[in-house]
Amino acid sequence: xxxxxxxAENQLEEFKTKRWLGLRHIQFFLQFLACMIAYGxxxxxxxxxxxxxxxEPPNSDIPTYPQWTEKETILSAFFWGYVIPQIGAxxxxxxxGPKWFLAGTMxxxxxxxxxxxxxxxxxxxxxxxxxxVIQGLNxxxxxxxxxxxxxxxxxxxxxxxxxxxxxTGGPLGTVIALPITGVIAESSxxxxxxxxxxxxxxxxxxxxxxxxxxxxxxxxxxxxxxxRRYIEGTTSTEEKEELPTPWKxxxxxxxxxAILIAHCGQNWGFWxxxxxxxxxxxxxxxxxxxxxxxxxxxxxxxxxxxxxxFSPIADYLIAHYLSIGAVRKIFNTIGIVIxxxxxxxxxxxxxxxxxxxxxxxxxxxxxxxxxxxxFNVNHIDLSPNHAGILMGIxxxxxxxxxxxxxxxxxxxxxxxxxxxxxxxxxxxxxAIYVVSSVxxxxxxxxxxxxxxxxGETDSSKKQSENEDKL
Length: 470
Fold this sequence. Notes:
The protein is 75% helix and 0% strand. By secondary structure, it is mostly helical. The longest helix has 32 residues, at 289-320. It is globular. It starts with a helix and ends with a helix.
C-alpha cells in the first residue's frame, strides 16, 4: 500500500511540473470566450443605438429612427431582465450542473441579438426593449454558471490568475465590440450587420461548448487521472453528496455582505461608464461614431492588459507574503478608489481638454481591473461549494444599480451636451465607489466559511479531510 501511495504522489508531482496545459485550460478558454461574446452582445448597443437614432445613415437603405425617445431605457433594459434569475440561477446551476445552462444562455442571447434589427423595423422601440430584457434574463445564468465552473475546475494555486483571465473576457469583449460596431455602423452595410455578427458568433460558440464543455473534472470523459487529482485535491468540490444551501448562514455572513456591497458599488460605477462613455464622447468631446467607438474601447483594452499584471501579483503575494483576505482587500481598494479619484477629476474637464479626459477615462476604467483579484473572486474563497449561488445573489442584487445608473441621467435636469450633467454623474459614481470599498475593507475575509460544509455528513467530512492530504 505504501508503494502505491508513493507512486501516486510521484505521478501527481510529475503532473504538477507539467501543468501548464491541460483539459482544464480548454474549459477556461471557452469560458473566457463566453464572457467575451456575452459582453459584446451586452455592450454593442451603447454604440449601436447612436447609429440607430442617427438622421444621417451611411446608406439610404439602412433604416434609422431619429424619432425614438427612449435611448436610456433601451440601454438599461438589459438589466431589467438580468436581475431576475440570478439567485434562482445559482441554485439551479448547483443542482443540475452549469454546462447546459451556459449553453442555453449563449444560444438564446444570440438568437435575440439576431432579432434586434427585425424588431426595430417591425415593432419599434418596444421591440428592441423586449429583446434587451430577454437577453438580460438569459445572461442572468452566465456568471452563476461560470463561477460554478471555476469553483469545480480551478486549483487553488491558480485561482486569481484563472478567474482574472476568464472574467477579463468581458472587458476584452467590450474592447472589440465598441470599435467593430462603430466601424460597421458607418460602413455601407450599416448597424444591423453588427448585431448579425454577434448573433452568429454566439451560436457558433454554443455548438463548440456542447461538444467539449463539462460540468466538472469528474464528468469530463477525456481528462487524465493526474490532472483530475491535481484539481480536486485543492478545490474542495469533489463529487460528494449534494450539500443543502445554508441560506440563513449565507445571508447573515458579514464577509458575504462585504462582497455584496462591493459588487453593488462596482456595478454602479462600471455600468455608468460602459453605457455612457460613447454618449459622453459624442455629446461633450464631439467625436464622430467611428472615432468615438474606438476611443471608448481604449479604457477597456487597458483594463484587460492590467488584469494580467494584477492577477499574478495577487497570487504571488498570497503564496509568499500575505493572507488571502489581505490581498483581496488591497486589490479591491486599488480597483475602486483609484477609479473614484479619476472620476471626480473627470467631472471638471471641459471639451477643450480631450487628451486629459481620455487619460482620466483610461485610469477610471483600467485600474478597475484589480477587482478581479478583489471581491470578484472572493465568493470562491468563502465557499467553493456554494460559489455559484453566492455569485447569483450578489450579481442579482448589485444589478439593480446597473439599472439605475444609466437612468440617473434622465433625472438630472441638464442636457447631455452640458458638462454639469456629467460632473454630477461622475461624482455620484465616485462616492458610491468609495463607500463600497470602505465597507469591503472593514468586513471582508479570505477564509473558507464554516457554512461551506454545513449539512455535510461525518463520512463526507472525513473523505474531504483525507483527500486534502493528497
